[in-house]
Every structure is written in C-alpha cells, then in structure tokens.
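Retro notes
What went well: the complex prediction finally ran end to end.
Inputs used:
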Amino acid sequence: LDYDDATDIISQLSEDDQKEILEEIDEEDASHIRNLLNYPEDSAGGLMNTQIIRINGKLTKKEALDEVIRQSEEMEEFYTINVVDDKNHLVGIVSLKDIIKAKNTIRIIELIKADFVYVKAETDQEEVAKLISQYNLTSIPVVDDNMHLLGRITFDDVIDVMEEENTEDILKFSGVSEDEELSGNWKEAVKSRLPWLIINLGTAFLAVSVIRHFDDTIKQLGILAGYMVMIAGMGGNAATQALAVTVRRISLNDLTDNQAYRTVLKEFTVGLINGAVNGFIVLLFALFFDKNPMLGLVIFLAMTGNLIIAGVAGSSIPLILKRIGIDPAIASSIIITTFTDVFGFLLLLGLASKLLL
Amino acid sequence: LDYDDATDIISQLSEDDQKEILEEIDEEDASHIRNLLNYPEDSAGGLMNTQIIRINGKLTKKEALDEVIRQSEEMEEFYTINVVDDKNHLVGIVSLKDIIKAKNTIRIIELIKADFVYVKAETDQEEVAKLISQYNLTSIPVVDDNMHLLGRITFDDVIDVMEEENTEDILKFSGVSEDEELSGNWKEAVKSRLPWLIINLGTAFLAVSVIRHFDDTIKQLGILAGYMVMIAGMGGNAATQALAVTVRRISLNDLTDNQAYRTVLKEFTVGLINGAVNGFIVLLFALFFDKNPMLGLVIFLAMTGNLIIAGVAGSSIPLILKRIGIDPAIASSIIITTFTDVFGFLLLLGLASKLLL
C-alpha cells in the first residue's frame, strides 16, 4: 500500500481512531501519513505520495545510479528521478534512460530538462489531472511555495480522480448531490436528492400558476391539457440535449467568447429545425384526430417556439454560470426544464386563448 | 507524432487521400501506419503503437542495456521492456531498473515477471482501459492469437479513451447519439438528436391519449391540469436521479443479483419518502389555495405513488437492459420519463375521477 492510498483510508476514520492507528504502526510510516493528512483530500497535497526518488544535481553518473538503486529498493515503482539542490529545492527531472546513456564524467545537473511541469501542494486535483493528461506525464512533482520538493503524483492516481469527477458530473447533472455514495443506503439518497426535488417543486408552482391563469381556456378545450404536457416534455428533453453537449464542451475545453456565441447560435438553429419537424408531425395529428386546423397551427408554433427556447436556455445558462464562476453542471436538467415548462405553457395556452377561443 | 496518433488522423480521411499520403511519406513509417489501419479504431489494435522496445530473453545484462539504448533512440518515451523469444513470442516484461540492478552475468529471461498482463489486438478499448487502471500499468503489450508481440498501449492513450467514453455516456444519457461531435455543426446535431425527440414524441402520444380519456374530469376541474404537470415532472426528475445512480454503478462495477435486488428495494424506499414529503407540501398548498381537502389527498397519493414508480423504473430498467446485453445508458431520461408521465396522469386523473367527482 502506498502512503497516499493509506492516508485516504485513514482519513475516513474518526480522529480518535486515526490517532490510535498512527501510534500502532511504524514511526516513519506514521510521520509520512501525518504529513499527508494536513492537505485537503482533493488537493495535490492530498493526492501525492512522499516516497520519491530524489538525487542531488552534483552527483556523477555512477553516484546517481547507485543512489537511484538504493532509494528504489523501498519503492514499488518509479517513473522519473527528481533532481534537487543542497537545500532540497527541485531544479529539474531526469529519466533513468538519460542517466544510463550519459557519459561517465557527467554531473546530473547537466542532464536535466530545462522546462518541466510541477504543481503546488494546494493545486486542485482536477487541475493536476489536466496537466498529467495534457503533457502525457507518468508522474508530476509536488512542491511548496519555495520550490521544496514534497512528493509526486502518478498517472494511476489521476485515472482514479477522473473516474470520480465523471461520476460527480453525471450525478450533479441529474440532480443528485455529489456526496451521495453510489453504494450508499436510502437515508443518504433521500438526504442528497430531496433538496433538488423540493427546488423543482418550488419552480413547478410557477408552472402551475401559469396554468391557473388559463383555467377557462382549458375548461373549454380539455385536450389542450394533453398537448400542453407534450410540448413542455419535448422542450425539457431538447433542453437536456443542448445542456449535455454544452456542459461537456465546457469541461473538456474552455470556450472563447466567439465559440460561446456560436454555440448558442447553433442551438437556436437546432431548436428551430427540430421544433418545426416535431411540430409538423403533431399538426398532422391534430388535423386528423381533432379536425381542428387552427389548433394544429397553434401547436406547431408553440412546439417550434419552445424548442428554440430550450436550445438557447440549455446552451446559454451553463455558459453564463461558468462565466460567473459557478459549476455549469449545476444547471442540471432539474432546473433548466422549468424554463421550458413555463414558456411552453405560456406559448401554447396564450396562443390558444388568442387564436382559438 | 506517434504512429498511433498519426493513424487516428489518417483514418479520418477518404481512402484516396489515405493512399496519397501513405505514398508520400517515408516507406517505413507508411508500413507501420498501414498495419495499424487494419484494426478497428476502438480496439486494442487501433489504439496501439508499434514502436516498442523488444529484446531477446537470451541477452546478457550488458547486451540488453546496449540494445535498449539503441532502440530507445527513435522513441519519445518508454516504460517497460518487452522480452521475446527467437520467434517474437512475448515471454515477459522487465523494467530498466531491474536490468540495472541485476548481476552482470544474468540472462534477461531470468529477470522477467512470472505473470504479466497483456491484451489481444481485437480487445475492446474499454477493456484495455479497465486493465491499465486496475493494475496501475504505464503500458500494456498487445499480442496476436499466437502471442506474437505487435505493439503497446500506453496510459496516456487510455486517459483519452476514458474522456471519450465519459462524454459518450453523458450524451447518450441525455438523448444525444454518441456520434455527435461536441464541436459539430447544426446539421450534425439535428441528425443526432431528432430521432430521440421523435421517439419521445411517439411515447408522448401515449400520455396524451391517457389525458384524452379523462377529458371530462379536466373540464370539470381545470386546475387538475396544473397538478398533473407537477406530478409528472417530479416523477421524471426522480426517475432521472435513480437512473443516474444506477447507470453509474453498473458502469463502475457489475452488480450481483443480490446487489441488484437491494438497489431496486432502496429506490422503492427513497421514492416512498421523497414522494410523501413532496406530496405533503402540495397537500398543504391545495388546502390553502384551493380549499379542497379531498383534492389535497388525491395529490398526496398520486405524488407518492408516482415517485415510487419513478424509483423502481429508474433502477430496474437499466439493470434489465444490462442483463439482456443492451447498454444501460440507452435507458436515457428521454425514455424513462414517459413511464412516469403516463403513470402520473393515470394515478392523478384516475383517483380524481373516483374520489372528487
């Protein structure tokens, strides 16, 4: 077990249990783990392993190889060798291959890469994952504010972080709080989901008040209630489609202003076309079953309008949230569909009361 | 550019363009790329790089080190050394560190690990990602059916695959086909999303026909249309919550029969509680605004019932799909919310016509 993984396990325990365990194990192991417990779990410090190969840049090839072999005895695996100065400041990294290929008279400091990537202990784990993935690194050194070498984070930790972040994203997107464990019990699930449902209930009262306003219209033409549900539902689904594509684009690459503008324009076009096609199908249906061409026209217009609103809201709301520094996945379908409910009802019932009655 | 990445780019071109480019570049490079083009893009063969360190197990320490240094000249980075016999059969892997630490008289074959992980060229990329993540490998060798060494897949390819699969999951989950590129234009978006919306339109006609059946009930009590929308919407959201948790559980670890049973039971309980709490809030609302206790009771029962249905459907449908071999993410909210629409309407309008009129 690596120190970083051991620390993750121990950090789940109560403080008393932590203390007890740390007193029982080997003193050196305990001090490594105590150090790691000081960093937040989702920071580079919380993710790093302090078992690391570090050699002084002044060493010769032979001395360095001996030192690497000595240090690697206690280690499962290592990928890069960290080169430090006399005061443990990180000055570069070097690979075992480069040392072997070097001339015998060389000093290690001459072998190091001029630019290398590193992170601070307080860097967020998502940022670490991005760097490791972008530069295809097997490991990345972690330093403090004064460039003292603290530890390393390896690619396998990052793979775990990515799985975790992706689970969080899909749950948040669906209105489940990020701290609901997938294997948790019903109490945890209620605690995580009920607040979102109550938020939705609050916004649904808004939709109900729109309908209450058109009470007479519905009483005169009951089937409007059916088409109302259809148009609101289709709007909700179209908004979720636009939302998913936009949220995913934001999390994979930050969009420039121009790209953001074009994204919203694209979703407007998609909403117009998908709305018109579906509206036309329902129009034919209304002609055939309800024998009411005007009703068909009202439905066609309401469907097209609501799917345009869905596309624009589904793409612009997460972009705005991102801009003001809120996680765009929070614009979950739960919130965004209220938009299309309210506007769908207003469009259909408003048009119906003007054109039909 | 590695061969695997170059192949990915070239595979996007038309066959004529591919041919032209392959004729223009260096013959050795072209033959590497031609080989890789034979494998499906999402298989281990499509993902692998054929530039690889391979040494014969009979070599001595000195010979092996010379050979590794010679082969690594042409290579950006390598992580493990593949050991083969005279016929290029893979017999094991060894690390550079192990060779350096070994006695001078040793044969490489004596250093190899007894059990090592490898994949066949036709293995699916998701399976490769799982192995690399599970065993914390920097790279995994790819072999043909006769254990001939073909290439290697490195962890950075797998990080890309994981991002890709996760994008696919969240899009599929939201009713967007997996082949819509995030940065695609509106034509591509319409093509990918319209079919799902039309499926949803088809199922919505089902919901409309339920409402048509209760036409008289709605005409007598117009506000029912409002509560109808509220209860169906809440059911849809609750179903999406249960669906997200279950789909994610399935994709991270396969559930046993017993766990599957307990998952559905848990979602039943969650639906019961969340439904009763929300139902009670609306009951108070109906008492206050509509001054109709019986209407309040009907809403309470319909909300509770529909959220139980949402929990059971949201968890059991993906489990059943998984069992019969269909990707559970296909049970996207688009399909599963129809369930809660239809049952929500049946419950509310059915109860209302029995108890209220």
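What we learned: The mean pLDDT of chain A is 87.
What to try next: split runs per interface for comparison.
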